[in-house]
């Protein structure tokens, strides 16, 4: 178990600033997911923590101890690389054994340690193979086993599921949280897959261009994204974004959708009269009968069943396209005219110019049950 | 490959035979000449059938060269030993110095690293004759002229850049993440160099070493100027066969056969590594 603290870390390559004055604290035993597009600086951040590259400015503290100038081999972290980085001239067993060998453990201890972690990850039958003879999934598990075998208090996982097929990724997404939790290690997990981020993280740090844009629980990131960009990155199908100009009447604040006044429940006083973008999650929209208050008319364009849910593409009176998602087996409409109702509590408003969310800190955090 | 017609295979066979004959003929001819006397060699037209003689080899091994104008002492076996000693030691020294240097140039971008690496390569650009005169003067001052030490030093001009630049490419081809992974596992940089970088660059190092050996073995001009008879390699020693009473073709051929044998044997033995090593860098695995 170990806590991690980054203080004002800056990393530049030539004239390009890869990490810009980044500070971050990860609590003991926590799993923090670094999420962001490629080039956001996630991998660089991980390597700084591992100690294979040095920051230009700032400090890195592990368990309160300044590790900024400590060499990688003395930091006691475990790391799994996106490209696996297995040693091609060693068998899977020897690959996994390397962190134990570094501690001069006895042969018996090494054998026991490798075999137990291999069994856990279901690669005990391929331990005598060289990496060349392993499938991608086995390589990934070998790399993970090598990171885990020494029971490092701080575990760095750089998008370990990136290069494995979809089925295995799905399996591992279910297995990994339990596996990581059981080992009690502090974990930093890098991914570009929002589902992985939501499934694994106690907290998610959304990065872009070397800066953490938002740090919060998966719930917070999903329900209260800091800006349009983050709202767009999380969620499948993508959030519907429509230009609106909120106004006020006797019943409160409303926006005009297909010439219907749709009242919003959030604290959006500051948005009145401004150019805004409304964000509506596809699952916050539902088909409704004509005459339902706030329901607006649309034309159904296409319906796509996706096993557990059905996504319908509809067009508003003004020709804007909207995606509506509903659980499979619930009634909907496959064609013709329809009406769409909005779950007004989950509507998000963003400033049109800056992309920042309006009326922050008012959405209820479902997990903790209190206003975040 | 499986779907070649009979005609195609015959044509390919003929083409290969022609190529082999073209390239092997000089070597075969020299091999045949080495078993003939000067008279049979110079007969016109040349004869394919002759009475083989071992006289040339006997002369080389005993060191007594009999010509029409008397008996000459030649130090061919001594030259052969010099060649072996100089080449092996030079390559060993170059590997010892060049491989760690190549690793440093590949992995650590320090101030002026490119300039230093390029300067080392530029030793190969300069014609040897350009540096020979100052080298000779310096070596005489320093007492290095006509010593094995001095020759091995000068041979580094041939071997070191070659090894440095070839091996550097191999180190650069090893993904840095593999070495990072070993470091993070708790190993020192030196252990990483020994256990990860060296084995992975192994074929490249072997190929570079072999190439450097061949270049060192074939060197002529440095040894000609900087060494006297007892330190000279075969390349210079072969000059002794151009005698006052004519060129001793038979002995020269025998000397060539003897002097290409070590490199040929080494190249044949290491052929697999050489091809693998020199082409591995091109198609990254």
From TrEMBL, chain A:
One of its GO terms (molecular function) is ATP binding. GO terms for cellular component: ATP-binding cassette (ABC) transporter complex, substrate-binding subunit-containing. Keywords: ATP-binding, Cell membrane, Membrane, Nucleotide-binding, Translocase, Transport. Residues 4-234 form the ABC transporter domain. It is found in: Cell inner membrane. It comes from the Bacteria. It is a peripheral membrane protein. SUPFAM superfamilies: MOP-like, P-loop containing nucleoside triphosphate hydrolases. The keyword Nucleotide-binding applies. Belongs to the ABC transporter superfamily. This is ABC transporter ATP-binding protein. It comes from Mesorhizobium waimense.
UniProtKB/TrEMBL annotation, chain B:
Residues 80-270 form the ABC transmembrane type-1 domain. This is Carbohydrate ABC transporter permease. InterPro entries: BP-dep_ABC_trans_perm (IPR050901), MetI-like (IPR000515), MetI-like_sf (IPR035906). Keywords: Cell membrane, Membrane, Transmembrane, Transmembrane helix, Transport. It is a multi-pass membrane protein. The chain crosses the membrane at residues 12-32, 84-106, 118-139, 145-167, 204-229, 249-270. It holds the Pfam family BPD_transp_1. One of its GO terms (cellular component) is plasma membrane. It comes from the Bacteria. GO terms for biological process: transmembrane transport. It is found in: Cell membrane.
